[in-house]
Amino acid sequence: xxxxxxxxxxxxxxxxxxxxxxxxxxxxxxxxxxxxxxxxxxxxxxxxxxxxxxxxxxxxxxxxxxxxxxxxxxxxxxxxxxxxxxxxxxxxxxxxxxxxxxxxxxxxxxxxxxxxxxxxxxxxxxxxxxxxxxxxxxxxxxxxxxxxxxxxxxxxxxxxxxxxxxxxxxxxxxxxxxxxxxxxxxxxxx
Length: 190
What we know:
single chain; 190 residues; mainly alpha; Hypothetical Protein Ta1238, Chain: A; two-stranded antiparallel ribbon; 5 helices; 55% helix; cytoplasm
């Protein structure tokens, strides 16, 4: 149970922060950048939800919850000591990735195949979902960078990879099933 009754603690005034296991690290540490970017993504998802119809809004609400799970996973560096922890850390699991894949397949079934790259835009919702896609890709890059230096749950990285795909397909669906996609025309302005 999380209890937040005092928002500022002054604990980070010197430029460090506490991880989920209590260790203190610099606020610009790779781990903090990775879970901080997943939090940024969560905020963009919240903006996208303002434009979303009911079914997409429900899917985005699930994703927002998953992103908090992801942040909880990434803020715990001691994966090898999970079994010893007083409170078992929350880790991303394969079923979260599987759900995204199922939803991608369902959305993609109604879309015509692409014959060009898609430019971000079209409807307001699609534009917001493309922003989410690019921030998800950045979060993935940061998680991969972190994983090169420290242990990271591989499912967390896989989730971010699939999530950016989800946002891409959802953006196409939001563009009138792809009919409103803005297609790239190579060299159009030469």
